[in-house]
Structures
1.
Amino acid sequence: MSNYYEFQNASKILSGNFAIENIPHEFKALGAKRILILTDETLKKIGTLQTVIDGIDTKEIEIAGVFSKIPQDSSIEIIKEIVKQYKELNCEAILAVGGGSVIDTAKGVRMVLSQEKEDIMQLMGCEIIYYGKHIPFIAIPTTSGTGSEATLVAVILNSMQNVKMEFISYFLVPDAAVLDPRMTLTLPKKITASTGMDTLCHAIESYTCIQKNPMSDAYAVAAIEIIRENLVLAVKNGKDKKVRNAMANASLMAGVAFSNSMVGLIHAIGHSVGAVSRVPHGDAMSILMPHCMRFNKDKLEKEYAKLLLYIGGEEVYIQTPKEQRANKTIMCIEEILNELNSLSGLPTKLSEAGVKREDFESIAKKSLNDGAMIVNPKQASYDDVMEILKQAF
Amino acid sequence: MKRSWKRKVIVKVKSVISKIVLFFLYKGFKLTYRKDLSVKSEIEPWKEGFTFGINTGIQGVNLIIKKENGKLIRLKEENKLDLEIVFKSIDVAFLMFTGRLGVSKAYAEHRFILKGEIGKAMSLVRCIDIVEAYLFPKIISKRILKEVPNKSMGLIKTYGEILITR
C-alpha cells in the first residue's frame, strides 16, 4: 500500500427508478431555484431531455434556460457562451444532461463561474483552483462509460491550438450524480458495448496505476464485478432497466476509482488514437486494453492475478493455477471483447476502427505527453508505444 | 500556540539542503541538455523563452529556469511561468530532493500542484527523471524511477563537470 494517498467522493448519488423526480428537492436543498440545463441536440431530439424536464418541472425549481448546442468536444468558446447565458438569465444552478462532453462542459462553466474568472486558461493545471463561489451542480449521465459525473477531471478543447486541455481539481466534482435507468434505455448496442468497455478500462487502470489506494481499489473491483454480470446483458437487451441501472452504477464507481487513482497507459494511447485517427474513445480503450495489459504485465502480475476473481468469477479463479491468473485475466477481457464484437460490431483491431499505419508516429508522440502516462507503473517509450500499436493493428 | 523551535530548526535545515539540491538540479539540467540526447530531444521542442519553476513553498527556496538563445538560464524571479510545480510542503519537497520520492510518485500522491498545461509537464517530468538519474547513485535511482535511463557519464564525472563548468 502507498505510504500516502488522498481520496474524495463528494457527490451525493441518487440511483434507480424515479431518481430524476428527486432533483428539484436536491436543488432546493442546495439553495437554488433558477436552473440552466446543459445538454446536446441528439438528446433533445430523441426525447431524453423531455423525460428529464417532465421529471423536474415542478414548483420547487424554475427552468431558466436550456442550452443544447454542446458539440462532441467541449470547448472554451462554448463555455464562454454558456457562462454569458447563465449570467443573463440570472441562473443559480447547473443541471448537466448528457455524456462526458456535456458534463465536462458543465464542469468548465461551473469552474469559470465559481472562480469568477473571465478566461478558463487561467485555471489550467492540476489542483490549482480553490473552493470559490458555490454553484450548485447536478449531473445526469446518459451513457454508462465516462464516469465524468464522479470525477475531478474535465477535458476541454482549445480549438485555437487544437489541444485537449485537462483541468484537475476536487472542486469540479458535481454536488449530486443522478443515475436513472431511463437515461440509457435508448443507447444503441455498439455504444453500450463501447462505453461499457471504457468503464471496465477505468476500473482496471485505477486498480493498477501508481496512485492506487485501498478506497479506489474497493470501487474498482466492485465495478468490475458488476460489469462482468451486466455488460453483455445490457448489449443483448438494452431495455432491461435493472441491467442498465447496474451498468450506470459500475460506470460511476469506476469513475470514483479512477478519479482518485487516475488512469495509465491504455488511456494515454487511447486519447491519442482518438485525437489523431478520430476513433471513439470506448472503441480505442476496448482494442488497446489487452495489448497494454500485456505490456504492463511484468510489473502488475500480482494485481492482474487478483482481478481474475472479479472479471472471471469464482469458478474460473479457483480453477486457474496461481501463476496463470494474470494471463487468464487478460484472456477473459479478450473473450468479453470478442463477444461484444459479435453482438454489436465493436471493433477488436485498430485497423477495423479506421486507424492507418501512417497515423502511428503521430499517435506515439502524442501519447508520451498525455497526462495519464505519469501514473502508469511501467515506463513506456516511443518504441514501446509503436510496438503496442502494431500489435493492436 | 505557535510551532515549536524544533520544528523551526527542521524546516530551516530542510530549506538549506533543498536550496543546495536545487542548485545541483539546475546544473544537472544544463549539463544533461548539452550531454544527454534524451534530455536534449525533450528540451529542443520547448519554445524560446519557455520558463518552468519548482517551488518548495518556502520563500527563496525555488528554482526558475528559462530557455533562452538555446541555453538554459536560472532566473531569480519571474511573474508568469509556463509551468510550475508547487510543493504543498517543504517536507515532501525535501523527500524528493533527497532521493526518497520520485516525481511521478509525488504527483500520484498529490504532493504538489501543477500550474500550466499538463501535457507540457510530461516532458518536464521525463527530464527531471533523467537529471535525477545522473545526480543520484543507481541504488537510489532504481528506487524512485520506474526505469533507470542509460547515462552518458557516471556519478563522479557528472559532479565533476557540474562543479567545473560555469
2.
Amino acid sequence: MGTLYGTHWILTLLLAVPLTGAVACLVGPERRARWTALATTLVALALSLPLFWTFSTGTAEFQNAASFPWIERWGISYAVGLDGISLLMLLLTTVLMPLVVAGSFSQIGRRERAFYASLLILMMGMLGVFVSLDLFLFYVFWEVMLIPMYMIIGIWGGKRRIYSAVKFFLFTAAGSLLMLVAIVALVHLHQQQFGEASFAYADLLRLSIPPRLQLWLFGAFGLAFAIKVPLFPLHTWLPDAHVEAPTAGSVILAGILLKMGVYGFLRFAIPLFPSAAMNRGVIAVILLLGLIGIVYAAWVAAVQPDAKKLIAYTSVAHLGFVMLGVFALTPQSLEGAILQMVNHGISTGALFLLIGMIYERRHTRLIADFGGLARVMPFFAMALTVVALSSIGLPGTNGFVGEFLILVGTFQRYPVVAVLATTGVIFAAAYMLPMVQRIILNPLTDDANRELSDLDGRERAVLAPLLGLILLIGVYPQPFLDRISPSVNSLIAYVEARAVPMETDQEPGIPAVAFEPARREGDQRAATPHHSDRLLEEERGEIGR
Amino acid sequence: MILDFSSNADYLVALLPETLLTLAALGILLADVFRRGDRPEPSGAWAAYAAIAGTLVAAGANLWLLLEVDAGPGLVAVDGYRLAANFVLLSGTLLALLFAVDYQRRESMQVGEFYALLLLATVGMMVLVAAQDLLLIFLGLELMSIAVYILTGFNRTDPRSAEAGLKYFLVGAFASAFLLYGIALLYGVTGNTNIADVVDRVETGSAEGELMLLAGVLLLLIGFAYKVAAVPFHMWAPDAYEGAPTSVTGYMAVGVKTAAFVALLRVFSVQLAPAADFWTGIVWWLAMLTMIVPNLVALVQNNVKRMLAYSSVAHAGYLLVGVAAGTAFGRAAALFYLAVYTLMTLGAFAILGLVAGKGDRHMNLADFRGLGWRRPALGLGLLIFLLSLAGFPPTGGFVAKLYILRAAIDAGQVTLAVTLVLASLLSYYYYLRVVWKMYFEEGADHAVASTSGSFRLGAALCAAGVLLLGLLPGPVLRGFERAGSDIVGGAAATATIEVPRPDAPANPTAGGPAP
C-alpha cells in the first residue's frame, strides 16, 4: 500500500480503472452493467482516498508524478502528477461518481450498458484532465470527455435533449479548438527557443513569451475555459444542458465539468501567460463578467418556475464567485475559490440529486407542483434544507467557508468588487429559500403529493456522504486548506515574479524575462551568498596566514 | 542497388511496382474474357482476390525499392516521398478492393473489368506521384483520370452514375486542358519539360518572358486544383461523388486526392519553390475558400453521401494549408493527413454503402436513425470514422489536423490555422448530426445487409488504423517526416526544421517545479 502511494503508478491506475470498467459494462450483460459501474467507481474511490493522507502538504511540487515519452518526435509525453489543486478535484470526482451511479439506478431504465460505459469513460476523461501535465494529453482528455457527455444528454435526456446536447458540444468545442491553435503556437515557440518541440507543461513554463502575444494566447486558452466555467455571457449552453440531462449528467456537469474550466485557468492559462493574467484590463474584464454572472444569474434564478433550471442558474452565480477569487489572486481568495469549487460540486450535486429524486416520483420539476413535502417526505425535507443552506453559504456549512475566504481575499485588492459580490450572497438567499419554502413547506394541497414516499435506503445512502461533507468542511476546513495552500502560494509567487507590464513589448524571440522558472532563480540567489561567504572565508584564511 | 538511368532497364526497375500492378490488371482483364466468354452474368469474386494479390505484390516491390534502391536524377523519382505516397495509395487500393468485393456482388457488378480499371487507376496515381517531368505528370494524370471516369459511370443501369461519369469526364477533360496548356507555356519559356531544368532556368533568370512563365505556373495550379477539387474548381466533385457507385466514391475520394496532392506538393513546394512568392498567395486563397465553402454547404445536406462528398472537398482545404506552408514539415503533414484520410474516408463510405442497400436507396440522414442500436458494430465503426473526420482525439484525424496546424504555425500562416479550426467547428455539426441520428433517434427500419468477411476485415483495418494513428502515431510520423525531406531537390529547396537539441533533459516533467 505504502509503496503504491509513494510511486507514480497510482494515477495511471486510477485512469485505467474506469476505462476497464467501461469495457466491462459494454461486454457484460445489460442487467449487470449498473453493478459493474458501481463497483468500478467504488474501486476508484478506494484507490484515490488514501491520496488525501499520503499527499505531502509541505511542498508545491507535483506528487506521484510520472512521465513517459509517448510521441517522442513531437516532444509529447504521458505526464501526470498531482498538486493540491488537482488532488481536491480528483477526489471530488471519485467521491461524486459512485453517488452518481447509485443515483441513476432508478432513473435509467434502458440501454444501461451504454449509459454506464459512457459515465465511466467520462470519469476517465475528467480524472485525466485533472492530472495531465502534458498539453497534448490534457487536450485529448479534455476533448474525449465531450463525446460521452454528448451521448448522455442526447440519449437519456429530456424533451429538448438533442438541441441541448448539440449546443453543449458546439459551445465547448468552439473554445477548445482555438485553444488547440494556442497550444500549437506554444510548441512552436518552444521549438524556436529551445530547438525542440515539446508539449510538456514543465517545458512550456520555461518559455519567454512577449507580453502582447501572451494576451492572444491567454485569450484563446481563456475562451475555452470561460465557456466551460461558464463565465457570463458564454453561459447560455448551461441551463439547457443541465435541465435536459438526466440527473447523472446534471450532477457531473455542475459538480465536476464546470470545475475543469476554473482548473484550466489555474493550471494553464494563468501560469503560462502571467503577464496577460496580471494585466489590469484582463483582470477588470474577468472580474466584471464574474460580477455580472453573480448578480444576473441570481435574478434569473429567482424567477424560474422549473427547479432544475433554477439550480442550473445558481451554478453560474457560484462560479462567478469562484472566478472572482481566482483573479483577485490573493492567497485567501484563491484558497477560497478552490475550496468553493469543491463545495459547489457537493452542494449543487446534492441539489440535482434531490430534484431528480422528486422528479422520479412526480415526473415534474415545476416548483409550483409541489408544496408541503415536509409532511410526507421528512428526510427529503431535511436534506433539501441543509443543502440549500450550504448553497446559500450559511455559517457552519461548507459554502460559508469558501465564499467568506473569497470575499475576504478579494476585498484586500478590490474592495468595491467584493462589496458588490456580497450582494450575490443576499440574492442567493432570495432565490433559494423561496424554492425550499414552496417545495417542502407550503400547504400540502396537491393530492398527488400526498402519496409520495420518503427517500428509500439507497437514496439516503447517496445523500449521506454529501451531507456529511457539507458539515465537515463547514466546521473543519483546515485539512483541505492545508493541501491547497502550498500550491496557491507557489502559483501567486510564480505569477507575480514572471509578469511584466504590457508596455515592455519586445520583438518575438527576444526573451523578456529569464528562461528559468522562478523557483530556480530563487535557488541561484540562495547559492550566491553561500558562494561569497566561502570566498570571504578563503580571504580571511589568507589574511590569517 | 543504384540506378543512374543510363539504360532503359533502369526505368523498369524504378517503376517496378507500377509494372507489376499493370501486369496484374491486364492479366485480370484477359482471364476474365476467357473465363466469362460472352455470357452476360457476373463473374465471381476471384478477380477481386487477384487484384488484392497484385496490390500486395506491388507493395512488396515498393518496399524493396525503399530499402534497396538508390537512384540518380531521372524522369521518375525514387525517393522516400514517392514511396511513402505509394504505400498510402496501395493501402487505399487494397481497402477499396476489400469493400468492393461485397458492394459489387450486391449491385450485380462483379466483373473483371472493374478490378482491372481500379488497378490501372492506381498505376496512373503511382506514375503521377513519381513523375519528375511535366509530360510524365500529364501521362499519369490521364491514366488515372480515364480509368476513374469509367469507374464513376460503371453502374450503367443507374442514370445517376452515368450522369456523374459524364460530368466528371467533361470537367476533367477541361482540367487536363488547363494543365496541358500550362505545361506548354512552361515548355515555351524554358524549352524543356523536365521540372528541375525549368526551375533552373527560373532561378538563374535565363528564362525569358516572366509573364508567360507565371501564366504557365498558374495554369498548372488550376489544373491541379480541379483534380483535388479545390474551391472554386470543385463543382464536379459532389455530383461525381454522389452519382458514382459507393465503392468507387470512396476510392476516388482518397486515391485521386492523394495522388494529386502528392504531385502538387512535389511540383510546387519543391521544384517551383523559387516562385513561392507567386503561388503561395493563390494557394492561400484556395485553402481559405476550400475550408469554408464546402463546410457551409455540407451543413444543410440531407443526403449522407453528398454530405461526405462536401466533407471530402473540405479536407482538400485542410491539405492545401499544408501546401501553403511549403515546407518539408508541411509535406510530411500532408502525407500523414492523406494516410489518415484514406483510412477514415474509405471506412465511412464503406459503411454508408452497406447501409444504403441495393441501388443506394437509403442514403438520407433519416435512414441512419437508430443504426447504432440496431447494428452496434456498424454504428461504432461509423462513429470512429466520423470522429476522425471531425478531427477528434483520440483518432488519427486529430493527430493529422494537429500536424497540419503545426506546419501552418511553423510557416507563420496563423490566419490559415485559425480558419482551419473554425472550419472544423462547422464540420462538427454535420458529422455529429449523423451520430445523433444513429444514437439519439429511432425509426428507420429498412434491413441493413449483413457484413461479409472481406467487409469486416476492411472495416476493422480502417478502424484499427485510425485509432492506432491517433494513439501511437510515433513510428508513422517518423517515417513520413523522413519522407517529407527525402525528396529529389528537397534539400536545396527547404531545409528541415528539426534541430536536435544538445542538452535535452532526460526527464523533463516528473517532479518539475509547480507554479
3.
Amino acid sequence: MPRQSFILNGETVTVDVADDVRLLWVLRDLLGVTGPKYGCGINVCKACTSHINGKAFNPCAVPVGALKKGDEVTTIEGLPDTAPQAQRGPNGLHPMQEAWLERDVAQCGYCQPGQIMAAVAVVRRAQAENRTVTDEDLDGIRNICRCGTYTRIREALREGEQAMRG
Amino acid sequence: MTKQEATNSDVAPSTAGLDASGPLHFGRRRFLGYVLGGATLMAAADLGLMPERAAAAVPTLPSIPELYDLNDLLTHAAAPTANLITININEDGTASFALPRAEVGQGITTSTAMIIAEELDLPLEKVIVTLAPARPELLFNQLTGGSNTTISTYTPIRVAAAIARKQLLEAAAILLGDTVGNLVAKAGVIEAPDGSSVSYGELATKAASPTTEQVEVELKEDKGFSIVGTPRNRVDALAAVTGKKEFTTDLAIPDALPTMVCRAPTLNGIPLAIENKAEVLALDGVRNVALIDTGVAVRADTFGQAIDGVRALKVRWRDGPVAGDSDEDVLKGLRKAELPLPTLPGKGLARTVGGDFTFWFRSNSAMDTNSAIADVRDGKARIWSGLKSPIVAQQAIARELGLKDSDVEVNVVQSGGSFGRRLFYDAALEAAKISKAMGAPVKLMWHRADDARAGRAHPMATSRVRAALIGKEVVALQQSHTSVETDFRHGLGDIISATAADLPAGVGNLGFAETIFTLTQEVPYNFGLVTQTLLETDQRFNTGSMRNIYSPDVRCANELVVDMLAKDAGLDPYEYRRKMLRLGVVRRVLDKVAEEGEWGRSLPSGVAQGIAIHKEYKGASACLVEIDTRPQTVNRKVRNAVTGPRVTRVTFAIDVGLPINPRGLEAQMQGGINDGIALALTSSLHLRDGHFMEGSWDNYFYTRQWNTPPEVNVIVMPPSSDQPGGAGEAGVAASFAAVACAYARATGTVPKEFPINHGQIAFEEKPRVPPVPQSPTDGLSHTY
C-alpha cells in the first residue's frame, strides 16, 4: 500500500492508502478530519472546499496520490492558524470565521466550513489583484447553501474582508 | 372534501391577541409541574401543558384554520401525554435540557435555550440544549414538523424552568437566612439584601428533592423579558464555523465503516441478483456486499472505495412502478383525475376570472444527504440519524428486525437541513437492514445522486382557481388542487387518527392529506363563498413535504388570480389586496412591505414589483419583490449555471405573534425567500423514462449566489400575542407568490407552470448505470 505524505493543518501526516482515493475520504474516513463535508463528490456543491498551498480547492476531486510531499492542505480546522495573530478575533479565530459569528450566518451549518474557506480565497484573490471584492465576485461563489443563507454570507464576507486588511 | 367560508368576517381568530388592536390579553400564568427526586435539582413539566386559549366566539363562518389549524392539531395531539420533560441544574452552574425535537438548522436549540435562560435568570451560554433520543412514552409528542416546535413547547419548557428557579430560591433562602421575597436571582446567582450570595451551581444539590413532588408555579410576566424577544446568535454557531459541529456522518462509532447502496436504473426498481459479488469483494478497501430490498449495499474502508464498489456492481433489476413514464404522463394522469369544478353561483349573471397552473416535481434534498449509522448485532440495534419522527422510526426498525421496541436505541443527531426529508427515516431503516445483513456496524450515506434521484420529492400538482364576479364584485372563489400523493406515513397519520374524531367543524373523517390541507389553507380575502379542495392520486412516487406542504403552490396560484382580479377591478395589486383583506394582522404586514419596499416606485421596462401575502403557523407574512427580466439580465452567463430573470430586491414582513429570537426568525425568512425564488424560477425535477434525470447540484438548480437578491430586507413585526408562532417554513409561500406575480407584471404574461424554466433542460443527464458518478481527478487544476 502506498504511503501518502503531505502537510495537514501545519503538521506532516502519513497515511497508507491507494493513490486514487480522493483526498476528501482520506481526510474524513482515515484521518478523522470532518470539517470538510461531502455534498456531491463531483466538485459542484463545494461543501468540502479547503485550501492547498493557500488556494481554494475541493478535495473530493483530488486523488491523494496527486499531492506532493511538501503540499500544505488547510481545512477549516487549521484556518485560524493561517491568520496573523493581530487579525484574530475575540474567539481566537480567523477574521472570516469571526465575521461569520458576528453575522450569525450559519443555519444548519453543514456547508459553512466550505463557505468560509471559499470566502477567504475570494478575498485573498481580490487582495492579490489590489482591489476589493465586487458584487461579481460574490455572484461567482459556487458554494451551495440549501438553507439559503446567501444574504448573510455576502454581508459576512465583506466584513471579513475589512478585518483581513488589518 | 370541501371547506367553505363566509365573507365580511373581520373577526379576531381564536389565537389570543393575534389580531387585537388594543392592549394584549395575556393568558393565565399559573401552572403545575414537578420537582423530581434526585441528587441534583430536576424540575419537570408535562409536555402537554398549554395555556388556555380563549374560547372562540364566532359570529360568522371564518375558514377552518382560523378556528383550528394544523398547529392546534399537533399541539393537542400531545395533550394526553402524561410524561414529563425535565430541566436539570448541574453543579457547574449550568442547566441542561434534552429537547424531544430535531434541530435541522431552524434554530430551535437556540430559541429553547433562550426560553429556559429567560425563565431561570441564567445567562444564555449556561443553558445546554441537546436532542433527546426516541422516547416512546412521549407518544405523539416527539414529532418535529409543521413549524410547531416552539408553538407546542413554549409553555411546558417555561413551567419546568420556573419550577427550577423557585426551588433554587427556596434553597437559597434557607442558606442565606432570608426570605424568598427578599432574594434576587440574576445571571445564575441569588443575592440577599446584605450582599451575601450563592450560585445555582452551589445550590444544585441543596435544592434537590429526595422525593417527587407537585409544585405550583407562576411564570414571569412578558414585560420583564430580557432574553426572549431579543436578537441572539445561534448557540451552535461557534461549532459550525470551526468545523466541530457533528452531523451523522461525522460521528466516530467503532467499526461503523462507510457504506453506500447501488440503486436501480428506474425509480424504486428492485434488485433480483448480484452477478459479480466476488469481483466487487476483491476490490481495494471493500469489506462487505449485501443485497437488500432497496439495492445492493457496499461497506468499505472509505466512501471513495464504497463508490468504486457501487460502480463496479453488476445487478439484475426488476423495473420500478413508473418505468417508461415521463413527467408529461404523470401530468396527464393528474388532469384525468381532476374533479369537475363545481358550478359557481350567479350562473348566467357572473363572469369568471381565473387560471390553471401546474407545479412540477421538486426535490427536497438537503446538503447533508440521507445518512444513518446502524449497529445491529446480538439481538439489539443502535441507530444514529437526523430524525424528526424518532419514535415511529424506532417502531418501524424494531418491526423490520423482529426486535422489541426497547431493544432498539434511536439517537437523534443534528442534521444538515431537512426541508421535509427528515420527517422520514428512510436511511435509518435501510442502515438497520444493511447492518443486519452484514452482521457489522455501518455508516450509511446516500450518494448525492441517490438523494437527488431516489430521494423524496415534493409532488407534482395542478391548481385551478376560478373567481366569479357579478359586476365588479367577487361573489365566489374556488380553488381545486390536484396532486400526486403526499406521503404522510411518518407518524402524522397516527396523530390524526388519534384526534380526528375530536376535530371541530365537521372535518372529522377526512383522509389525512385532506385533513392537513383543510387545516393549513386559508384565503384571507373577502371573496364571497370560498371553496378550496384537494384531491390526491398516484401513489408510485417517494414524496413528502418540502419546507411547507401545500401552501407555496396553493398561494402562488391564488395570488396570481388576485392580481388578475385587481386588474379587472382597475386597482393596483397592493391597493386591491388592502381593500379585500379580511384580517388586520395580514393587512399590517402588507402595509409594512409596501412602505419599506417602496411599492409603486418607478422602474425601467422589464423590471417590475410583485406583492403577495400568506397566513399560517399562527402568523402572517407579506413579501414585495422586484424582478429584472430584461434580456441583458436573463441572458447573463455564469459557467455551468442557470441564470434567467433575477430577483434584485426583496422586502419581507413577518408577524409570528411573539418572536422568541428575531435574529433567528430573520434568518429563516431569508432562507424561505431563496426557496420561493427557486420554486418560481429554476428548481424542478424532470421524470424521463421512469427515472428522475437530476443527478446532482449541477442538474438541480436551487437558488445560487448568482440568483439570490443583492438586497433583502426582513422586518420582524413587534409582538402581537403572548404566544409564539412557527418560523421554519413561514417564509416560502408569500415569497414564491410574490416572485410569480412580479414576473407576470414584468413580462406581461402570467406563467402557467412552475418553475418557469421547466421546459428547458439545461444539462446533460448523468448515466443511470452505474447509478453514481465517479469523482473527478482534476481538482488541482481548478484552484483559486
4.
Amino acid sequence: MEQLPKWADLIVVPLVGLILAFSLSMLMVFATGHDPMDALSLMVKGALGSTYGWGYTLYYATNFIFTGLAVAVAFHASLFNIGGEGQAAIGGLGVALVCLFIPWPHWTIALVAATAAAGLFGALWALIPAYLQAKRGSHIVITTIMFNFIAASLLNYVLVNKLRPKGSMDPATAKFPEPAHLPSLGDMLNAVGIPFAKGTPANVTLVVALVACIFVYYLIWRTRLGYQLRAFGKSQPAAVYAGINPVKITIITMMISGALAGLMAINNVMGEAERLILGSVEGAGFIGIAVALMGRSHPLGILFAALLFGALYQGGAELGLWTSIPRELVIVIQALVILFTGALDNMVRSMVAKVLVRPKRAEA
Amino acid sequence: MDYLTILQILDSALRLATPLLFACLAGLFSERAGIFDIGLEGKMLIAAFFSAATAYSTGSVWLGMLAGVAASLVLSGIHGLASITFRGNQLISGVAINFLASGLTVLIGLSWFKLGGQTPALQGDARFQGIDLPFAEALSGVPVFGPLYSEVLSGHTFLVYIALLCVPLTWYVLFRTRFGLRLRAVGENPAAVDTAGISVVGLRYAAVAICGVLCGLAGAYLATGLGASFVKEMTAGRGYIALAALIFAKWRPWYALYATFLFGLLEAISNRYPSLDLGFITLPSQFMQALPYILTVVILAGFVGKATPPRAGGEPYVKER
C-alpha cells in the first residue's frame, strides 16, 4: 500500500471518512422522505446557533472527551477497551457514594473527592479484565463487554435495593446535597461578564476534561510509561525484549483507561443529574470508540472529534424535537463514522492515496 | 416446585434458547474461520426488523424470514468487506454493525410504520405457528415421559426445530466434510490453506455468509416466532450472550447447544422467579441476569476448563508477496 504523507494520514483520511459517513446518512434522510439540507441546517443551528445549544453541545462533548481518551490510551497499547460504558457507570457509583455520604463544605473539595472516586471506581472496574488479559490471556474485548453487562446489573441491584430513598419508585439515588452541586458553565461565564444561556448542563467538568487531555498528551508522549506503553502497542515481543513487563503495562494502561472513562461520571452524575440514575451513561462509552478513531488517538484530535459528536448529539436531539426524523439518525452517523474511520480505514486510505500519490509519480 | 412447573420452565427455556443457539452457531462458523464477530447482535436486530416488517406487509411469515436473512446477509457483507477484503479491525467493524442496525431499524421503522420504531402486531400467517409433533396428544397421558414430550418438545414453532437440527448439521459440516476441514484450517493457519491452493478469502466469505444466514434466522425467530412484532432494541444483548455461549462452548457445536440451553434456562428461571429463594440465600433477579456474563468471565479466566479460541482469529490474512 502506498505511504501517505503524515498530514494526509492524520487529517485527510478521517475527514474523508467523515464526509462519506455524512453523505450516506443524508441519503438515508432523503430516502425516508425528508430534505437532507433542512435536516443538516436544523442540526447545525440547534447545536451551535445559540449559547443554549452550545451549553448542551459542550456538555455532551465533555462526556465524549473522557470516554474518547479512555479508548485512545488503550489503543496506544494495542488494547481495545470496549468497556467504557461499564467503567463510566461504576464511576458514577463512586461519585454518588462520595456525594451522598460525606458532607462536603464546598463544591471545590467535593469535586476533587468525586474526581478521585470516579477515577478509582472506573480503574478498579477495568482491573479484572486487565488482569485476566495479562495473566490468563482472556481476550480483553470479550471480558470488557461482559463487564459492561455485569456493571449494568450491579447498578440496577444497588439502585433498586440499596440506594433508593424510602418511598421512591424511581431506581435512582436521592438528590445530592447542595454543597456537592457543581457550578454550570453559564453561571461561571456570566460571573465574568460573558453572556451564556443558563439552565444548560455544561459545567465546570469541561475544565477537568481539558486538563485530562493535557495529562494524556504528556503521559503518552512525554513520560517513560507512555513510551513503554506505545512500544508495547507497536510490538509486544520487541517490548518484552527491551525489558518492558507486559503484565504491568497491560494492567496500568487498562486502569488509566478505566479511570478516564470513570471520570465521565463527574460530568453526567455530579454536574448534570445531581443524583445517580439507571442507565446514566447513555451509550457515551461506545461513542468514545468513534471519537478515538476519528481523533486518531491524539488528545487534540479527540477534542475536536468530541466537539463534533457533542454537536451531533445536540443537533440530533433538536431534530427529534422539531421534525419526524428520530434522534437515532445520530446513531447511524456514528456507526458509519466508526465503519469508515475504523474498520474500512484501509479502503478510505487507498482512495485518498489514489488521488494524492499518483500525480506525483507522473511528475517524477 | 412440581413436575408441571419444571416442564413449563424447560419449555420456556427451549424457546428462549433458540435465538441464542442460532446466533451462537453463526458465531461458531465465523470464528472457526478466523473472523471475530461481535456484530451478531446487530445482525439479529436488523433481521428481526425486516422479517417483522415484511411479514406484516405481505402477510407471509416465510417471505418475512427471507427478508430477515437477506438484511442480515447485507451486514455480513459489510463485515466481510471490512475484515477480509480491506483487512480492517474485525472488532471495530462489529461495533459499527451493531450501531448501524440499532440506528437503522428505528429510522426506517419510524418512517414506514410511524409507531415509535415498532412494527404493527403480527397475526395469523404473518407469525410462525406452533407445530404439534406426532402423537403429542396421545402420549400426554403417559406418566413422566408423556408430559415431557407434549409440553416441552412438542408445540414449538418451525424455527425451534430448525435450530435444533442445525446442531448436528453444523457438527457434520465442520468435522465430516472437506469444506469444514478447510474452514477450520483457515481459522488456525490460513497460510497453510493458501499454500494448498485454496482461497482463504473465498472460505472466509463463505463462513461470514453462513453466519449471516443463521443470524437472520435468529432475528426472524425473535420477531415472528418468540414475539409478535418488532420492538426497538428487541435483541436486548442476546447477541452478546450468544458470544458468551460460544466461548462457554469452546467453539464446539454440541457444547453450543448445552451452553445456550443453560443460558435460556437461566433466563426462563429469572422470568418466573424474579428473586430466587434458595433457602439459605435469596438471589436477586439482577444476579440471575448477570450470571451468563459472570460464568463466561470465569470460563475465560481459565479456572474452569480453558477455552482456546481458533489461533488465527481476529487477524486479517496478508498473502506474502
